[in-house]
Amino acid sequence: MTVVTPTVGARLRSARFWLVLGGVAVAGAVAVAVIGSGGGTGGRPLGPANAAPAGAKAVVEVLRDEGIDVSVTTTLDATSTAVSGDPERTSLLVDDADGFLTDGQWDDLGRLDADVVLLSPGQSALDALAPGVTALGPSAGGVAAPRCDVPSLARLDRVDVTGSAFAIDGSDAAGCLPTDAGLGLVEYADTTSSVTVVGATRALTNGSIADEDNAAFALSVLGRSPSLVWYLPSAADVPEGGGTLATLTPSWVTPSLVLLFLAGVAAMVWRGRRLGPLVVERLPVTVRASETTEGRARLYERSGQRLHALDQLRIGTLSRLSRATGLAAGASVDEVVSRVSSLLAADPAGVRSVLVDAHPADDRDLVALSDALLDLERAVHRATTPP
Predict the structure, then answer these.
(1) 56 in helix, strand or coil?
(2) Do 80 and 195 belong to one domain?
(3) How many Å is the Cα radius of gyration of the chain?
(4) What residue numbers bound the domain in which 329 lies?
(5) Tell me: the pLDDT tens digits for 21-76?
(6) How far apart are CA 216 and CA 376, in angstroms?
(7) Are residues 212 and 359 in the same domain?
(8) From the CB of residue 257, how many other CB atoms can be counted at a distance below 10 Å?
C-alpha cells in the first residue's frame, strides 16, 4: 500500500467544521462579553443604562424627566462623596446583586444619613440597615395593592410584586405589597432618614414599567429627593485579600462558559451520530503486510499475550475450515468442530481443544498449538480435495 502525507489544504478541509464551530463560539463569547459587561452597568438586570426588558433605563429616564438628578456610582468611595455633599436632598439606591459589600461597608452606608433604597438585599444588608427584616427568598409574583400606611403609596391600586419576599419580625417598619410568599416592600422611617427594602423589583424593569401602577410605584419609591445616587457595587469595593472566585469573576464569564459548553455538546451530538467515511492515511513510505504482522507479533511477545496471539490464529483457521467444509460464513464454532471431527473421524473434544479450549502456558505451548492448527487445516484440505 503506497500512501503519502496529507497536504495543508487537505488538513484544512478536514478541520473545516471545527474551525467554523470555533469561530461561532468565539463570536458568541465576545457578544456575551459586550452585552454582559457594559462598564459594569449596561447589561446587568436592573442596570440603569440597560435598555433590555430586564434593565431599568426607562425608570432613570422618567426620573430625569421629572427633574430628578440621577447619577450612577460603582465604588463605595465615590458613593460616599456623592451623598455626603447634601444628604438631606439625596436618596441612595443600592443594588448589590453580586454580593460585593461586606458587613463593615454596609455599616458605612448606614452612617451617610440619607434615604436609602435597597433592591432585593441579602441578609447582611438587612441586619445592618433594616434590623428585624428577614429575607424569605423569591416571590411567586402576581399583582397586589400596597395595603400599608406609607403615604407615597396610598394612591396605588395594582403593583407587580414579582421579585423577592421579606418578613418583619417585631419591628416598627411598615410592610407593603403582601404576597403569598411575604412582603414585596418594607419601609423604615424616622425623623432624619428612611430605609426602603424593595423586593418587587420587576415593577422597576423596562418590560413592566408601563403595566398596572408600576410607573407610579417607581416614582414613589425612587423620586422622593431631588437627587438619586444609583450605587452598583463592583469588584473595586472588595477589600484587599477578600472576596472569592465567584465575586471577583466578571458577570459575562459564566454565560460565556455555558455557551462554550453547549457548543461542545452540540458538536459531540452531531459528530457522534455516525463514524463518517473511511479516510486513507497518507504516509511517505510503502509498508509491507509482513512487517505489520511481525510488528504485532513482537508487541504480543513483549506483553506476554500468548492467548491473544493464538486466538488471532484460531479465528483465521476457523474461517478457512468453515469455507473448506462447505459451511455458511456465519457458522458457529460448534458447527465447525462437528463437521471437521466427522470428516476426519477424530475425537470432537480433541478438535475443540485445538480450536478453542487449549491455553498456552509458555512459548513452547504456543508454537505447538500453532503447529496443531496448521496440521488440522492441512488434514481437512486433504480430506476435502479429490484425489
Answers:
(1) coil
(2) yes
(3) 39
(4) 289-384
(5) 777 777 766 665 555 544 444 578 899 999 999 999 999 999 999 999 999 999 99
(6) 99
(7) no
(8) 13
In the numeric block, which cell numbers belong to residue 179? 404576597
| 261 and 376 part of one domain | no
Cβ contact 248:238 at 8 Å:
yes
Residues 53 and 124 in one domain: yes
Indicate if 23 and 56 belong to the same structural domain.
no
Same domain? For 259 and 336 the reply is no
| C-alpha–C-alpha distance, residues 215 and 229, integer Å | 19
The amino acid occupying position 380 is V
Whole-structure pTM over 0.70, yes or no? no
| Angstrom distance (rounded) from CA 315 to CA 234 | 70
Distance of alpha carbon 325 from alpha carbon 314, whole angstroms: 16
Q: Which residues of 224-253 are buried (b: 16+ CB within 10 A; e: fewer)?
A: ebebbbbbbbbeebbeeeebeeeeeeebbe
Q: How many domains does the chain have?
A: 3
Q: Which helix (H) or strand (E) holds 134?
A: strand 133-139
Strand, helix or coil for residue 39 = helix
